Structure formats: C-alpha cells, structure tokens
Amino acid sequence: MYTSRNLNGGFIVKFTVEHTPANIVKVFPKASDLFKEHKIDFCCGGNRPLKESFEEKGLDENFILSELNTSFEKWNKEDHDVVDWDAKPLAELVDHIRHNHHAYLMEELPALGQFVTKVYSRHGAAHPELRELYQIYNEFRVEMEEHTIKEENEVFPLIKQYEQEPSEELLIQIRSANGDLEDEHSSVGDMLKKMREITGEFIPPANACGSYQITYARLAELEEDTFQHIHLENNVLFARL
C-alpha cells in the first residue's frame, strides 16, 4: 500500500488550493490526467499553488478539488508501486530519465515525424491546419533532440560528478545550465500545447484514414511522455540542486 505524504513528512488527507500541481503529481501520479483535462500545468509552471491556476483559467475550484480528492481517496486504497524520486540518488534519477524518456524520444521523434509528413502530404489540401502541425512538430523535434544531446553530454555528467564530489563550482555550473534547460522546457511545453490546439485535442476527423488516426494517437502519447519527462527534471532533479 502506498502511503501519501507531503514534503514535511506528514500525511496528506486531502489536497487543497494551496498545494502545487507539481507536488500533487509527486504523491499522486494519476493527477496528471486530471490536470491535462483542465489544462493545468504541472510541469513547466507546476510550482504555483492550484488557486492561481483556478483563478487564471476561471475554473470551478470546488468541482475540481472534489474530483481530485475523490480519485485520490480511491487510488490511495489500492496497491501502487510509486517511486519517491526525491529520496533516490541523483545518479539513479538521471539514469531513469536517460533510459526511459530520452531513449523514447530518440526512437519516437523520427518515426512519428514520418507519419506527420505523410498525413500533411496526403491530407493537407483538405485540412490546412496540418501544415502548421507539420511546421511546429519539426521545430519541436529539433529542439528536443538538441536538448537531449545537451543533457546527456554536458549536464547529466556534471550532476553525477557533483553527487560524488560536491563542490560550489560544480553546483554553479549545473544551476547555470539548468536555467537554460528550464527555458527550453517552457518553449517545448508551449509547442505541445499548440499542437494539441491545432489537432482539436488530438482527435482526428471522423473520416480519417488509419495513418491519420495513428499520427494523432502517437502525438498524444508524445505529449504525455514529455510532460512527465519535464516534470521529473524541473520539479525533482533540478529542484534538488
């Protein structure tokens, strides 16, 4: 049984408007689905209290909190193997990001790019929004590939070195690099939001062919993985440094 906790070591009974989306997702990963449904940012801007998102978006805080806490209460009674990444060695978290999220991106980005191009080529005349999708996707792909290479070749080795041999000099280097990476995270996060808007929540037209449907489904999976990826880096890895 997974016991939920807050950052002070106490037990969470209910989430409130004072909790941040980032910390909620740490103890209740399934909350990310609810946040995506209501377009509440839990990765790039996940450190603001929920009440700010509710006010900014004009959301019904009582309805969403009720939905969140009801789901959390049910989930918390079940058995879940949830990793507390705040308590794990930095090197283990870095390797998890590399072997899961980075490996996924390097395989999926070129493959999905072929589908995006194919759908645009065949259906762009009837669906002009596919041209914009094609352009933004390729911007996203270049940004994420360069971002991943920078992390693997420059930042992650520094983090592992810092964990073994901590020094103020290394920490300054890491924090400087992380600031740039967080800016890049915000940029790709905006691209993902734009792709969701262009595709109408990744829902293909009623008469869409198989390739069209596969493209939108894989774009939705890419969004999910990238948001989790950014959440782990911004709100766990970088926050610990």
Structure explained in plain terms:
The chain has helices at 21-27, 31-37, 50-57, 61-76, 90-123, 129-164, 168-198, 210-240. The chain has 2 domains: 1-82, SP0561-like, CATH 1.10.3910.10; 85-240. With 241 residues, the protein is mainly α. The longest helix is centred in the middle third of the chain and has 36 residues, at 129-164. The two termini are 30 Å apart. It contains 8 helices and no strands. Helix 5 (90-123) packs antiparallel against helix 8 (210-240) and helix 7 packs antiparallel against helix 8.
- Beta percentage is under 5%
Number of strands: 0
Q: Mean pLDDT across all residues, rounded?
A: 89
Count of distinct structural domains: 2
Order of helices and strands: HHHHHHHH
Number of DSSP helical runs: 8
Radius of gyration (Å): 19 Å
Find the structural class using helix and strand composition.
mainly alpha
Q: Percentage of helical residues? A: over 70%
The N- to C-terminal Cα distance equals: 30 Å
Q: What does the overall shape look like?
A: globular
- Specify the biggest β-sheet: none
Uncertain stretches: 1-10
Subcellular location: Cytoplasm
GO molecular function, one term: metal ion binding
Main location: cytoplasm
Pfam family, one: ScdA_N
